[in-house]
Each structure stands twice: as structure tokens, then as C-alpha cells.
């Protein structure tokens, strides 16, 4: 999360103009953007929010939009409260795979593992389980899930927190996760919005991006998040076309709030300075009212039950001591700060299932599955297979490789309640079935590794390459990976073991793709498995797949290239001016498989294993592809015609409303100052909303109030605003989600074992502006031998459209035929057909 605090602000508060390429616009003001809910749940929530906010004073409103300060309260982020109305402030906590800094909570598989299941059911279930745990700890906002970094470059430090470099897969995954989290009464926070694609220079880098790429790639999953009803969005550290994302009018108002129809709240860090700004007329009252109304609307939409009875935080993010001062920098009051509430429930079973079903079998020459009854002997080799001798949480923020790696490092981590290493799981299984078991931990003692491998009929060698956030560096990797090789001598270890054992299995715990072309071609390497970052049940989930207790269904959520250069993207690690680093995105929409498989861009010959690839223990046959049009008529050059009239709306918002008592700016600041005796009882480092508390807030770096000349006049524009043609509803114009076609296909299990097939639908737009293939549907289907299932995939207007930078709208380019492919990966396409546009 952002290392300051939360202010519940639907950003931006103010903004200077920002350029946008490939559009007729030069800059944007910061006008009022009405929430204007079109969803019944949001409308009901806004009605409750307005009624609540109408009762608040100015300082109470500021208190709800302001964080109390870093380490000032129990949670990583905590807003002020409204004691007069019995409302306790919001508790916000990392992270995207579990409750950070808390005991007796689960460490779930990473987002990329959830995506690798290609299972909407499992992704939703993971969100539900996390929501239950956050709610059980008294947390109101989970700072996740992640769609930025999307994964532009495979080196990106925080890719593993998200889902996939494919925006469609990430869009589905983030939406299902949000629905799961929020169904349990916890507000989800989609982050990091937007273009947070590397850790180097993340706080200053200026990402220069064109409008088409923004819409068709990076904004796409955030649209899905908004459509799913996400209550909060966290803006990113970087700049976008010259202006920081958090104060970028195009990014925050034009795209997020207007075009995507975002109804919730974002983040900022202001404190008492906001009270001053409102009283001085720098920030209009309607802007503050909009902030707090959005916050409370998100709360009322998501929260279950009466707000005065919701559980308060029962833990401290800063210590696991049972008792201590309620506020870290104050000796009073001394109280119970950790109740050690166990919120894990039966989630270990789900974590184990996802760990198994996200494991991707990249290569299998027939050795797998292993037999418990007839395996002569087994060797497990490598540091990454074994327990950290100092415990799984011994390295702060999980920033080490002293033992098996089951998550990346940084603020997106959680404490392991326990961690089942592969060596522990396989040793226990071997003992239960009387399989001779050998193991060694060192990655550098190659003679011992070879000796151990040579004593076993099957040798499993483990290797890792992790990544994380830039405030921690491991072996010179400052968040982003320096390259795509394995860490800790992993490549040499694999080669050494394979040289002496003809039944070598390679298991990879990596933050993304690594260069393994040598292993794919090695005759002694019989199987390669990518296990990613599987969470606390790592070893058990892996064993379930190796021995066939779980039918493999993992599919790679990214492409495995043969070299770093083959990806066609560049990570900026050195800048001519470190204070003003700049990054172009010349590849545009051609990222990952969209790059490799598009003629004139990448080279499919540079792919070791493709996006969506994954093997199972049976075989499947595809047949009877059919395409059914759901709406009559032709498409027309702009995608209008018979495909519905909802694509252009042109609706206008009402004027910006003031909620509650109108502040008289001529009355002065009396009534907005700290109460008498404040100095005697104030809490050090705590952020207060009163105008004369600024001197105290300066301890925490918050005493800053911008001069009135810093604000352009448009920043205070509360007049009615026109909705954009591509907007109007949550996630964009409702017409975008109209189903135009249904694609049906039969899939039959032709093997001798029950198995799960992940059927993938791709669109070929066949126009020069688009990649050759775009994922547009997927489903996982379990089938017993000889069984057949008919699967149906909907195709929406959005699925078929391109972004027109001149009209600022989506359009279907009907001059180009649209081809549909169905198969088991982006490089294994079995059937195809043409859409009747």
C-alpha cells in the first residue's frame, strides 16, 4: 500500500492539465463528476450515505477522509472516527493474499496462482475466504486485489501480486475476487491504478502512453473491477503523461469516474490541511462532501449489518504482544491490543486445492503421475524444497530465499501461520508408502546434489526466482528482477542433477517466467512444473499433483520466452536524469502472447511454452463448433446498427450538491480549532482535523496546505457535466456488455482417467491495429473418461471492439472479418469459425 495513510478521497483533489496522445484533447479540468448510480445497490447506499453525511460537521467530514497517521493506530491505515454518532473509523490493511502483520490468519496463494487455475469458482472462493478473514480481524478495507502491475515486463517486481499480463484474464480474476471479498462485508481496493509496471523509479517515473493502449490493455481490468462494484481504488506512485497518477485529471476524473462510472473512493493524505483548504475556499465544500459521501456509500453498499455493531480491529499491525499501549507512540491507554483471534476456519483445504490446481505441468514425457505403490525411490534436491531453518516468517516482508519460496516479498505479503515445504510433504508421503527418500538442501554443493540424485529412481530438483517491492533488495534485485535466470545457482543445479538421473523432475517457484529452454530440450528432464507462489499448503498441493491425487488443471498465465529480449519490452533501471525518468511504451497493445504471436512483432519461434499452456493426465477432443448471433442486423463501421442503441448516451450530471449544513466562509475559523487542553492529551504522530493542529501534524509530515494560486479555476467547477459516450454505467456504457454472439463447442475426455480441461476462446480481430489473438473466454470443465460436455461462451460488444481515439468510443471494425478459435492454449488451437458480422 502507499506508505502514508488513507484519506478516502475520490481523487484528484486538484490537478494541472496533462497531455494525452492520439486524442484531440490537450488537457482536462477537474470538474464535478457525479456518482449518478445506475445500480440499485449503489443508489440505496448513496441514499444512506447522504443521510449520514448530512449530520456531520466540517471536522467530522475531514476526520472520515483522513488517515490517523503511519503507525498511529492498530491498522496500517486507519481513518478518524465520529464518536458523536457512534461511528468507528475505517481499518485498512494489506494485502492481496492475506492479512499482513497478523497472527492466526491464512497465507493464500498469490494472485498469479489464482489466475493459473483458470477457474472462476476457485478465484471467487479465494476472495470469499480472504474476505471472511479480514472481516474476522475487524478490518473494513482489504488493500487488494491487484491489476497494476498488469505484467508488461516479466521482470516486474509486483507482477505476482496481480494475475496475468492478459487484461481479459486479469479482468475476470479481479472481478471475481472483488465479488468474493465484498460478499463478506469487506470493501475491496483495486490497485495500483494505473501503469505501475515496474519498481525501479516507481515514485518518479513518467509513463508515456497512448490512448488506445491505455483503454485496450491497462484500463481494461479496472473497468471489470468497477463493474463488479469495487468500493475503493488505490492510485499508483508513478506519473502518467507528465502528471502523477493520483492527481492526474485524465486518469482519475475522465477515465475512472466519468468513463468507467466509478462510484467509490480513492486515497490521498491531507489531514488538518484539508480543513484549512475548505475554510479558505481553496477546496469547495461540495468536493469534501463528495469525498465523504463516496466513502460512506461504499461502506453501506458492502457492509453487512448495523455500523455501530461491526467488530473493531482485534489485532495490532505493529506488534504481536497481547497487551500494550493502544497507540504505538503513546503510553496510554494500556490495553489489550491483540486478541489473537483465529480467523483461518477451514481455509487450508481451499488453499491446498488452489495450490494443486494452479500448478502448471509444462512438460511431461510420461513419468507423471508418480505411483505411490511402485515408485522405487525418490530424491528431493535444492534449498527451495526445504524449510527455512529460522522459520517461514524469519525474513522481514518475506525478503529472502532461505528455504522454499511460497510468496514474493514486500507489502503484498502475509505471515505464514505455517508453511508445508515440498520436502516435508514428500518425505511424509514417502514414509507412509515405504518409498526410500533422499534429500539435500544446498544449491551450490553440486557433487552432493549429484550423489543424492544418483541414488534415486526419480529426482525432483527445485529452483526459484522471486521478486517484490523496491524498498527491499535481494542479491541486487531491487524489487524487479534483474534478469530471467533462476536464483541461487538454480540453473546449474538443474543441469547437474539432470546429468546423472534420467528421471529428473524440475519444480519452479518463480514470480513469472524464467529461461528454461535448456530444460525443455533436455532428454533426462522428464517433467517441468511451475508451482508459482502457492501459499501455506505449498508442499501438499504439489504432492497432490505429482502423485495424481488431483487432476492437473493449471495453465500458464504468461508466456515463457527463450530470452529476455524476445518479450519486446524494456525495464528502465538507469535514467539520464534520475529525478525525471521517462518510459515509453512503444510496444503498445502487443504484450506477452499478443507480442509473440503477432507477425511483424515478436516471433512464435521464441516461445518455449505459450500462454495458457498446461498438461494433464488424460486427453480431450474438440468438436461441433457453432456460432449463434444473439442480436439481428449488421454491425456498421462504428459498431452501432442492429447491435443496440446504448453505446452513446450523452447524459448530463446534476450540479455538485452540498450535503448538510453549508459552511459560511466569512465566519472565520472559530469552531474548527482543537479543543481546550488538546496539548495535554494529544497522541504523538496522530493526525487531527483541526486547523490549529497542523503544527502537531507536522511530526508526521502532513502540515502542508497548498496556496490558492496552485488550483486552476476548473478544480472548483461544480456545474453539470456531460457523461462520456463510452460511459454512463459501472464499467462503462452498458451497451458494451451486451452479448452479441454465443460460441458453443463440444469437449470429450478421450483418455482413461478423469481430468479437467481448460477450454480457451480466442478472437482474431484481423485488423492491423490489433494483436493476432485475444483471449475472450475460458472455462474449466471436469470430465470422466468418455464423457462429453457442451460449453457456451458469450461474446460481448466490448470483446469485439477497438478503441477509437478520435471519437472517444468503442467501435467494431466490421470491415475486417472476426475469427474465433477454441483450444487448450494460445498455441494449441483446435477449431475455428468466422463471426457473421
UniProtKB/TrEMBL annotation:
GO molecular function, one term: beta-glucosidase activity
Annotated stretches, region: Disordered: 635-657, 701-731
Keywords annotated in UniProt: Carbohydrate metabolism, Glycoprotein, Glycosidase, Hydrolase, Polysaccharide degradation, Signal
A Pfam match: Fn3-like
Annotated Gly residues bias: 635-647
Key word Disulfide bond present: no
Residues spanning the signal sequence: 1-21
EC nos: 3.2.1.21
Domain Fibronectin type III-like: 757-826
Highest taxon in the source lineage: Eukaryota
Catalytic activity: Hydrolysis of terminal, non-reducing beta-D-glucosyl residues with release of beta-D-glucose
Pathway(s) it belongs to: Glycan metabolism; cellulose degradation
Biological processes per GO annotation: glucan catabolic process
Family in the record: Belongs to the glycosyl hydrolase 3 family.
Name of the protein in its database record: Beta-glucosidase cel3A
Species lineage: Eukaryota, Fungi, Dikarya, Ascomycota, Pezizomycotina
Amino acid at each position: 500500500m502507499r506508505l502514508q495513510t488513507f484519506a478516502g478521497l475520490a481523487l484528484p483533489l486538484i490537478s494541472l492539465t496533462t497531455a494525452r496522445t492520439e486524442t484531440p484533447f490537450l488537457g482536462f479540468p477537474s470538474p464535478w463528476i457525479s456518482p449518478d448510480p445506475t445500480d440499485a445497490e449503489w443508489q440505496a447506499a448513496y441514499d444512506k450515505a447522504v443521510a449520514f453525511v448530512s449530520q456531520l460537521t466540517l471536522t467530522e467530514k475531514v476526520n472520515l477522509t483522513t488517515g490517523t497517521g503511519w503507525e498511529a493506530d492498530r491498522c496500517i491505515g486507519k481513518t478518524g472516527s465520529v464518536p458523536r454518532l457512534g461511528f468507528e473509523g475505517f481499518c485498512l490493511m494489506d494485502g492481496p493474499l492475506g492479512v499482513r502483520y497478523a497472527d492466526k490468519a491464512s497465507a493464500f496463494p498469490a494472485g498469479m496462482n489464482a489466475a493459473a487455475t483458470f477457474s472462476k469458482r476457485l478465484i471467487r472462493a479465494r476472495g470469499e475466504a480472504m474476505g471472511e478473514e479480514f472481516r474476522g480481524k475487524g478490518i473494513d478495507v482489504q488493500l487488494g486485489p491487484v491489476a497494476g502491475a498488469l505484467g508488461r515486463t516479466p521482470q516486474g517486481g509486483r507482477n505476482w501480486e496481480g494475475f496475468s499480463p492478459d487484461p481479459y484474464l486479469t479482468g475476470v480474476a479481479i472481478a471475481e475476487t472483488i465479488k468474493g471479498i465484498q460478499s463478506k462485508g469487506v470493501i475491496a481496493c483495486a490497485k495500483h491504478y494505473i501503469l505501475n509496471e515496474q519498481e525501479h523509479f516507481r515514485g518518479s517515473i513518467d509513463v508515456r502512453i497512448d490512448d488506445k493502449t491505455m483503454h485496450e490493455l491497462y484500463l481494461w481490468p479496472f473497468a471489470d473491477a468497477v463493474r463488479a462494484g469495487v468500493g475503493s481504488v488505490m492510485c499508483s506512485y508513478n506519473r502518467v503523461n507528465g502528471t502523477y497518477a493520483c492527481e492526474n485529471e485524465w486518469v482519475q476524473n475522465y477515465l475512472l469516474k466519468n468513463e468507467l462510472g466509478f462510484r467509490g473512493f480513492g486515497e490521498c493524505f491531507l489531514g488538518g490541511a484539508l480543513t484549512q483548504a475548505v475554510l479558505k475556499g481553496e477546496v469547495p465544500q461540495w468536493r469534501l462532501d463528495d469525498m465523504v459521501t463516496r466513502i460512506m456509500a461504499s461502506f453501506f453498499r458492502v457492509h453487512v449489518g448495523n455500523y455501530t455493531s461491526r467488530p473493531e480491529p482485534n489485532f495490532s499491525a505493529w506488534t504481536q504482544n497481547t497487551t500494550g499501549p493502544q497507540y504505538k507512540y503513546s503510553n496510554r491507554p494500556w490495553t489489550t491490543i491483540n486478541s489473537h483471534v483465529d480467523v483461518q476456519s477451514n481455509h487450508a483445504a481451499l488453499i491446498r486445492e488452489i495450490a494443486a490446481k494452479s500448478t502448471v505441468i509444462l512438460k511431461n514425457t510420461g513419468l507423471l503421475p508418480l505411483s505411490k505403490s511402485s515408485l522405487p525411490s525418490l530424491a528431493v534436491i535444492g534449498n527451495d524444497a526445504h524449510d527455512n531453518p529460522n522459520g517461514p516468517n524469519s525474513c522481514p516482508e518475506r525478503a529472502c530465499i532461505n528455504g522454499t519460496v511460497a510468496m514474493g516479498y514486500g507489502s503484498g505479503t502475509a505471515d505464514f501461520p505455517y508453511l508445508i515445504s515440498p520436502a516435508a510433504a514428500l518425505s511424509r508421503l514417502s514414509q507412509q508408502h515405504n518409498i526410500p527418500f533422499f534429500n539435500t538442501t544446498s544449491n551450490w554443493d553440486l557433487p552432493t546434489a549429484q550423489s543424492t540424485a544418483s541414488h534415486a529412481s526419480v529426482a525432483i530438483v527445485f529452483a526459484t526466482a522471486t521478486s517484490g517491492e523496491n524498498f527491499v533488495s535481494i542479491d541486487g534485485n531491487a524489487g524487479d528482477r534483474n534478469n530471467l535466470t533462476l536464483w541461487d545457482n538454480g540453473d546449474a543445479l538443474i543441469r547437474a542433477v539432470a546429468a546423472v538421473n534420467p528421471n529428473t523432475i524440475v519444480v519452479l517457484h518463480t514470480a513469472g517466467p524464467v529461461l528454461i529452454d535448456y530444460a525443455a530440450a533436455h532428454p533426462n528432464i522428464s517433467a517441468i512444473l511451475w508451482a508459482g507462489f502457492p501459499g501455506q499448503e505449498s508442499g501438499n498441493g504439489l504432492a497432490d499433483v505429482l502423485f495424481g491425487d488431483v487432476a492437473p488443471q493449471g495453465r500458464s498465465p504468461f508466456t515463457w520466452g527463450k530470452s529476455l529480449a524476445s518479450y519486446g519490452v524494456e525495464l528502465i533501471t538507469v535514467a539520464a536524469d534520475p529525478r525525471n525518468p521517462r518510459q515509453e511504451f512503444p510496444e503498445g497493445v502487443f504484450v506477452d502472447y499478443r507480442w509473440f504471436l503477432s507477425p511483424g512483432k515478436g516471433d512464435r519461434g521464441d516461445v518455449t511454452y505459450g500462454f495458457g499452456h498446461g498438461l494433464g493426465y488424460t486427453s480431450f477432443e474438440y468438436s461441433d463448433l457453432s456460432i449463434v448471433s444473439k442480436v439481428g442486423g449488421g454491425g456498421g463501421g462504428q459498431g452501432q446498427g442492429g447491435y443496440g442503441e446504448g453505446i452513446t448516451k450523452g447524459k448530463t450530471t446534476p450540479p455538485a450538491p452540498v450535503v448538510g449544513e453549508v459552511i459560511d466562509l466569512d465566519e472565520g475559523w472559530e469552531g474548527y480549532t482543537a479543543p481546550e487542553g488538546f496539548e495535554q492529551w494529544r497522541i504523538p504522530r496522530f493526525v487531527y482535523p483541526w486547523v490549529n493542529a497542523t503544527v502537531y501534524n507536522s511530526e508526521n509530515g502532513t502540515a502542508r496546505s497548498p496556496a490558492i494560486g496552485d488550483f486552476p479555476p476548473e478544480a472548483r467547477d461544480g456545474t453539470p457535466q456531460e457523461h462520456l459516450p463510452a460511459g454512463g454505467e459501472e464499467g462503462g456504457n452498458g451497451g458494451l456488455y451486451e452479448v452479441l454472439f454465443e460460441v458453443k463447442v463440444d469437449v470429450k475426455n478421450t483418455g482413461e482417467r478423469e481430468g479437467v480441461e481448460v477450454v480457451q476462446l480466442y478472437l482474431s480481430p484481423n485488423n492491423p491495429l490489433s494483436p493476432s489473438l485475444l483471449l475472450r473466454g475460458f472455462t474449466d470443465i471436469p470430465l470422466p473418461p468418455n464423457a462429453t460436455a457442451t460449453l457456451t461462451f458469450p461474446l460481448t460488444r466490448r470483446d469485439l471492439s477497438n478503441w477509437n481515439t478520435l471519437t472517444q468510443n468503442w467501435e467494431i471494425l466490421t470491415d475486417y472479418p472476426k475469427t474465433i478459435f477454441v483450444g487448450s492454449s494460445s498455441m494449441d488451437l483446435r477449431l475455428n469459425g468466422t463471426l457473421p458480422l
